[in-house]
Recover the amino acids of this structure.
């Protein structure tokens, strides 16, 4: 958190996550950061730049109904858990016995067959139910850049995106398409991580959170050296 705080006072910094904006703000509790929660479906900026974007408000009642249905459907499966991320439902099966994972998948699939307005996405040991809308983490990144007017000065900025989840691939793709020569998509993946395939649209790889910390600290140091 200390490094993130120093980073956000030095560079324009955003956190793009599958968790709700409210949850991630409570966890990070920094006011200089842009937050894009629910896989980018809800975006908010700091007081100094109060941008705001909500893509799927009309889906909220359906997601609440789906949560209630799925909680009942998986209630007998030990370790299965549903996380309400406002504009997405995360059905976690990390703590489910391997022979019971298919039961979780079947419950989710059966529900989706009756809810064409929702779609299924996959993450690390999680099934994600999201509104069937053409929007993802990549859309959120590009929206933030546009809202801040940074898309008008592509030659003067160098966006970086770090992510470890399968859903971050959308952001990697968007960044490489919009900033093919002056931006970098960075996958965070430990060697041998079976939950996260090595195939990626990112250009670079950091091997673990420790390397991420070193990388972010170096970014701050570079700017401080430049300002000295």
């Amino acid at each position: 958190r200390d490094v993130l705080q120093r980073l956000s006072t030095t560079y324009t910094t955003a956190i793009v996550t599958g968790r709700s904006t409210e949850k991630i703000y409570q966890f990070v509790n920094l006011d200089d950061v842009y937050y894009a929660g629910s896989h980018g479906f809800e975006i908010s900026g700091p007081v100094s730049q109060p941008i705001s974007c909500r893509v799927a408000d009309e889906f909220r009642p359906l997601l609440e109904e789906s949560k209630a249905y799925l909680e009942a459907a998986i209630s007998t499966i030990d370790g299965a858990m549903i996380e309400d991320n406002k504009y997405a439902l995360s059905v976690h099966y990390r703590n489910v016995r391997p022979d019971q994972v298919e039961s979780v998948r079947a419950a989710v699939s059966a529900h989706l067959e009756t809810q064409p307005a929702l779609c299924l996405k996959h993450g690390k040991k999680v099934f994600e139910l999201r509104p069937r809308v053409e929007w993802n983490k990549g859309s959120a990144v590009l929206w933030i850049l546009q809202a801040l007017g940074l898309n008008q000065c592509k030659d003067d900025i160098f966006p970086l995106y770090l992510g470890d989840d399968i859903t971050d691939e959308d952001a990697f793709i968007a960044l490489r398409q919009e900033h093919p020569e002056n931006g970098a998509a960075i996958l965070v993946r430990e060697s041998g991580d079976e939950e996260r395939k090595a195939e990626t649209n990112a250009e670079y790889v950091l091997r673990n959170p420790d390397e991420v910390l070193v990388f972010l600290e170096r970014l701050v140091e570079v700017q401080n050296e430049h300002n000295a």
Residues 130 and 149 are 29 Å apart (CA to CA). The longest strand covers residues 118-123. DSSP finds seven helices and eleven strands in the chain. The chain has a mean pLDDT of 94.
